[in-house]
Structures are given as structure tokens and as C-alpha cells.
Amino acid sequence: SISSGSAAQVREVLVFQPLTHIRRLSAALDPACHLPSAMMSQRRSFAAAGVASVCIVALISLPAASALSHRTGRATPVLNGPLRSLTRKAKLIKPDSTMRLRGGAAEVEAAKDMSFKPASTLEYKDWYQKPDPEWEEKDGCGVVQWDPSLEAWKGSLQHRYTKYKELKRNICKAEGSLEDFAKGNEKFGVRRSTDPNKPGIIATEWAPNAQYLALFGDFNGWNRGNHPYSKDDFGVWHLFIPDNADGTPVIPHDSRYKIAITTSTGQETTRIPAWVSYTVQAPKGAPTHPGYDAVMWDPPKKFEFKSALPDQPKSLRIYEAHVGMSSEGEPNVNTYDLFRERVLPRIHRLGYNAIQFMAIQEHPYYASFGYHVTSLFAPSSRSGDPDSLKRLVDECHRLGMNVLLDVVHSHAAKNVEDGINNFDGTAHHYFHEGPEGYHTLWDSRIYNYSSWEVLRFLLSNLRWWLEEYKFDGFRFDGVTSILYTHHGMNHAFVHGYDDYFGTSTDMDACVYLMLANDLIHSLRPGCISIAEDVSGMPTLSRPVAEGGFGFDYRLAMAAPDMWIKLLKEFTDDEWEMGYIVHTLTNRRYKEKVVCYCESHDQALVGDKTISFRLMDKEMYDGMSNLTPANLIVDRGIAMHKMIRMLTMSLGGEGYLNFMGNEFGHPEWIDFPRVGNDWSYHCARRQWSLADQTHLRYIHLNNFDAAMHGLEQTFPFLVEDCHEYVSLKNEGDKMIVAEKGELLFVFNLHPSNSYQGYRVGTSWGGKYKLVLDSDWPEFGGHYRNDRHQIRHAKNEQWCGRPNHLEVYSPSRTVMVFARAQE
Length: 821
Hints:
The chain is an alpha/beta fold. It is built from 15 helices and 32 strands. An 8-stranded parallel β-barrel has the order 12-13-16-20-21-22-23-24, surrounded by 4 helices. The longest helix has 22 residues, at 154-175. It is globular.
């Protein structure tokens, strides 16, 4: 199959004619064919590509059915079982030696040939964002070329870019460069001295309003007075502890410590260093229990990464994962090592080329899903120590996968003793003073993005994860909250550009995001940055030098809301094809998006996953292959596949799936808390469901792998990819679209199948069916022969110069590619 198996299982590879100078066309809306409005033409050449056909797992014979002819409207009989193979075959060739196969022996052999450039020689590819050495000469209005309506807001764009230039100039003047400014971890925190002439422990902390600081812990019997800091004129506290006479450090590896502090109000208490790189919950009986302690992480043998850094892929397919809740059966928190051994191979076999880890930054409250962060530089100790996380990242790189961190710079936990809130006794230390510094909906603190030391803290944090752990990029959480002083609360963003360029936009926060993206793209060629923004802020994913914010992608957050709305409020026959297509394709020109039909948000308790909305309680009793599927399950399996393929094909330039949803994981996510008696029952993933051949979950898992195999062979998520929707027929519930080199035919009608249905296409010649959601390995009914060849007729249809005639079964998607004549 496409997703797994040995090289011997790869049956056929087709040669396809290259497409050159494809025009992205359309005219005024055609009432018959519902054509999209006109857009500028674009030129793009597509190289010839091959595809591995999917093996037939089972043949299912169906009772005779009737289908409606698109042209005549009369019922036409449909053949029982699989159609007989057509006699004319596409020309076949052997797989190209560079084609990477997944699964079994093929994967092993491919892995031997995998070679990535070492980090020191990473280069900027054509599709990477690149630092602009002439940033000082720009005015921030380059984005207007992509959106002429921004002409009226050039003053706002210039103002924003001017503030960015002024701040960057000041940083470069005071610190040498933006990159040097972001080396705060080499100055702050508790760390080993790198000066061979001065061996020992160096401790540095910014706490301008504190009255007293001292370091205490296991190393000095938790004595508050033995190792005090001294304060300089800039509010920075310093401490040096020389090594013992025998050369061993006073604070040994893996020992616990904290800061004893007298705050601005005179309170004697404790704090964890703001720059701490590892923290653990204090054990019972310890003087600091049940809070967290800092841990000195200084192993005798430093971890060495073995795998080279991967290139940023042109087509981004992301698997969103939570390590802690990835275990199966065990009532516990999973570890980085077990995730690497048991879960990561599954993700790789499915074909994802990037993995996005949630809940990595330390967060004492597990049920916060990792979003109430207390220690930005420390990995969550629930799942293991720092080296175990590095082993996980290293293995991802060995498999050629990019690793993204879900970074939380939009807010921080309001914890005091194990966080940075009120660190020196003042509310304005790292955060804004008063109501401006509190997020009332999230019950958390808001950073002061205008503070010099806060900027150093946040920018250094990005550099730390890139260099210390070798992450390949970031998904910035809560960007909407960062952008606006109202944090997006009670705002619908329906009043046009006034919503984005008004007084409620936090200009200091905007400049921080520009600096952040400027930094990471300078440090690491191909670094990926993704913005989670629900507001639709213009220019968010355009380069900083053009006046944008510098993100590579933005999340298409309207898509999951659309699917939930359709499933909750409408019957299948009420779904509007135009609404679906508009929501998926309504994105800003030249701003790449990552689309998804559901993420972790939809899986949380109180909500439902798509599979659960489709099948509900039938997922417990109706998923066995040993008995025929009932109507609810049959519909659910079919619609689950349709929704995913629609989202991937029409949603943008990237695709994201949350852990387990690819096979329709039942139930919701509910972390241990008081309300569920601290149960882990719903904080796990039942991976075995997708492995059981007698359960239907395997069909959804197979289809997910096939989608990735299809996109890998015929890339249709790449930037500026040819895209044209030729049909949105509300009566037939049909959607036909060209994406890249492929022709997608969706039939969302709950009961009607269509024989001889005309499908417009740009391209003439032969067509091969390369993917069909109705194939039996995907839980379908196999109503179309997988080896069929279709011949395009040179007759205009739906505004396209050619058309095919296909049999389109109800609730299926078929994907065609051109075969060599």
C-alpha cells in the first residue's frame, strides 16, 4: 500500500506529462457551474511525477443500486461489485531510485540512503524566509503589492515598521546584534562557568525591586544565608560559587535548589530562577513540597545529537502531539523515551513530515494542556529529563521530520513561588501593571513587550529551544492575544481593516513578533514559524522586510469551526457546497496557511471530535468488521474521510492533525483534575484500535496514510500551487477541483450516486484513478475499479476546455492524475 509494506508491494508507477504555464483562471460566477471569480494568472511548471498504486485488500460486492445520470437525470443501473478492469492501461515504469518509500523493508532501505546536510552547512532554499540585509532602507509598505487595499493604511504600516527599525537599531547598538541580544541564557540563570581560569557556579538574576537574594538547596542544607547574591546598579543580582578544592562543583548534577528572596514588600519567601533549565516537583517531606524546585542539570557527559538537521519541507504536514497523554492503558503520564519508541514510528509510517509538540515548557498544572507555563526554558519534567527530550528530537531528525515547539509567549501562569509572577515582589516585573497585565479569560499574566529585559528573556527563549534542543520551528500560541490590548475577547473582527490598524492594536507586541521572526530566521535557515491567530490580521505571514510580521504560516482557524457548525446544526442534505469551498479557500493572497479540520481544541472535554459527532455511541458497539456496518457507522466512516480530504486539498499550503484523530479516536480528552477524581482514563490514546484488523478504525488510519502518500507523490500543498474549483453544485452536492497536478471529485450527497457525471478539467489525455475513498482498505464499498483509465474529451464543461465522464458514488472522493499517452 502507499502507507506501508515492502518494496514488493509497490505495484505501479505512472509517468505523468509535465504541466507548464498553468493559468489560475476564472470569470464571473456561472449560475450553472458555480465558478469562482476571476483571479490573476500565474505561471508554474510541474515536473513529471510517479505514484504507487494501492493494493486491493478486499473486494466487497454490493447489491444493485441506481445512479442518476448528470446529463439526463434518469436512473442508470450500477454494476454489482467491482467494475471489470479496462483493457487499456497506462504506461508503467519502475519506481525512481530517489522515491522514498514508507514502511517495512522499503523504509529501511530508504533510511540508509537518507542524507541531510549538517547544521553548519544549512542553506537558505528558494522557499525559505531570508533575512534582509537592507532592512534599514525599507519603509514597511512592501506588502501593499500583494494587497492594494492596504494602500489606505500605509501610514499604519510605516509607523509599525519604523518602531521595529528603531528598536532593532537600539538593540544592535547596545548589544552588538539581535542575535547577541538573544544570548541571555549565557548571562542569566544558574550555570557552570565556561572560564577555565575561574571554575565554579555562576548565578545571575534580574530582580530590580528585591531586597535580598540567596541561593540555597541540597548543596547547603537549605540554608538561606550561606550563599547571598550582590546587586548591581541595573537591578541585576550576581553570585559566584567557586568549585571545591578537588575540582567538583559545589552544586552537583541533579541536585535541587531555589532562590531565597526578600521581596520589595519585605516578605521572605522562595523563587525558582526565571531562567532555570530544569525543574521538578519537590518530593514529599522536602521543605519546599508540594511546590517545584530547580534542578542543576550538568551531566558529566553532555548529550550529543547524532542526526543532522532536516530541511524545511515545501509541503508541510504536521502531526500535533502531546507526549504526556500519548500512553495507552497505563494510568500515568507518558515519557519522552516511550513516545520515541512506541508512538513516533506510527507517525512516521503515516507520512507526516513534521511533528508539533504541545506542553513541552514546564507547567505545574497538567490540566492546563501546557498553556499555563511557569518556566519557559525548562522541559516538562513529568515526561523525563532534558536529555530524554533531546533523544526524542534527535530521533525525529533521523527520520527526516521537522520538530516544532508549541511556544507560549502570549501569557504566563500567575503562579508565584514556582513561576515568575511577582518575582521581586512587584506585579510589573515581567508583566504589565494593573488590569493591562491580566488576562481575565485565561486567569494568567500578560508580558510587558516594551520592556528591554522582557524582550531579552523571550527572544533568548526562542534561541534556547533552537540551539539547545534543536527544534526546527515554533507554533506561536495565542497570537491574537498578543496583537491586541483587548486580547481578542468579545471582538468578532467584522469591521474591516479598522479592526487591525486601530488604537486597540498593541504596537509593542507587534514589534516583538517581528523581532522574534527576524531572529529565528536569521539563526536557522528554514526555521518554521506558525501563528495561531483567529482575527485574520493582514500581513501576518509576510516577511518582516515587506512590513509583515514574518510568520511562515498562519493557522486556518475558520475551517474547524465550519465543520463543527455543519455537523451540529445541519443535516447532510442541507450542507452548502459554496459555503464549504468559500471557507476553505478564503485566505489572504500570498500568505500561507496551515489548515485542519480539528486540533486539540475540539478534542477536549465538553466538546467532541469529528468522529464522535458523526458516530457517537456507535463507536463503542458498531466498529467491528465482523458484522455489516450500520447506517450511522457507514455514514461516519465515509464523511470522516471526505472532511479530511476536502480540508487537505482546498485548505491551504499546510495540513495539521491532532494525535489519534487520524483514525477517529473515540471519546474526548479530560486530564486528571478534581472534577474527575484525578482520573487518567481520558488522558491517553488507544493506539491498538488502529491496529486491530477486525475494527473499522484501521480503515480511517489507512486513508490518512494514503492522503500523505498522495501529497508526497503529487505535491499539492506547495506555495503558489495551481488551484481551481470548477464546480460547486448545490443540488448534486458535488465539488470538483484542480489542485496541483490532480483532479479531485467530491460527492457529498447522502444518497445519490452519479453515472456518466461530467467533470471539467484543464488537461486533456488519459487519467488514472490514484485514490478513492471507496476502496475497501478505507472501509469503502469498492464501486469503482481501481485500475480504470479515463479519457478526457476535448469539449468545454464548467468553464474548462476538457471534461471526463465518471461514476461518482455517494459520499466519496475520487482523485485522478494524468497518465502518459
